[in-house]
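Fold tokens
===========
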Amino acid sequence: MSRHKVEICGLDTSQLPVLSHAVMRQLFKDLQDDLVLEARDTLIHGNLRLVLSVVQRFAHRTNSVDDLFQVGCIGLMKAIDHFDLGQNVRFSTYAVPMIIGEIRRYLRDNNPIRVSRSLRDIAYKALQARDRLVLENNREPTMSEIAALMDAKPEDVMFALDAIQDPVSLYEPVFQDGGDPIYMMDQIGDDRITEREWMNNIQLEQALNRLNQREKHIVSKRFFQGKTQMEVAEEIGISQAQVSRLEKSAIKQMKQMIQ
């Protein structure tokens, strides 16, 4: 996109400026010392190419690239306002995760797939904790660090974050090396049910029927109805951790029966 004239939000992207590292440092000094009032605007305008490069990664997920670009600019402004020159890191290294985070939040908020409010609340708190830790430490925090800041269990945080992940398009390229790209759909099998698979299904049903009532209920809800462990836990009145343990035990028993 940067090689040709492309209009986005009324801007000619081919004319976007590029600031050198030395100029960037001076502008941040001016901004933090309140020496030049235009320093922030110059930094924003001089880093729009950075926003554009991030937006290109997500353009296939929306019909409005202009909206993504505006959201990305919000992430850029947050990065400019919080960047610390004292840290030995380039601004682009610091800004890109914040721009990506802002765009991902926008896509999640506009995702048509429904996720329970309790899971969304945990996930959004985790994202806020993650942003706070990034600002404090200038690095990506671990799941344990995020959970500790929230006073939550790492597995609960991970489960909530997984629940709000954006679905991946079957036409999203997963590899390209100068030739035709390999898409996600190329990695998914489409085999028809064979006689052997039909026999395996019978064995599976027999193994399922030999589980106790609670284990059978959990396996049926999880793998035949597509419910999450948290949803099953709420439905039968036990913790998500207990569902996980019972599920693993049931699967182990079924494997032994089939073998």
Observations:
- The chain is about 60% helix and 5% strand.
- The first helix runs from residue 21 to 32.
- The beta strands are 7-8, 11-12, 173-175, 182-183.
- Confidence is low (pLDDT under 50) at residues 1-6.
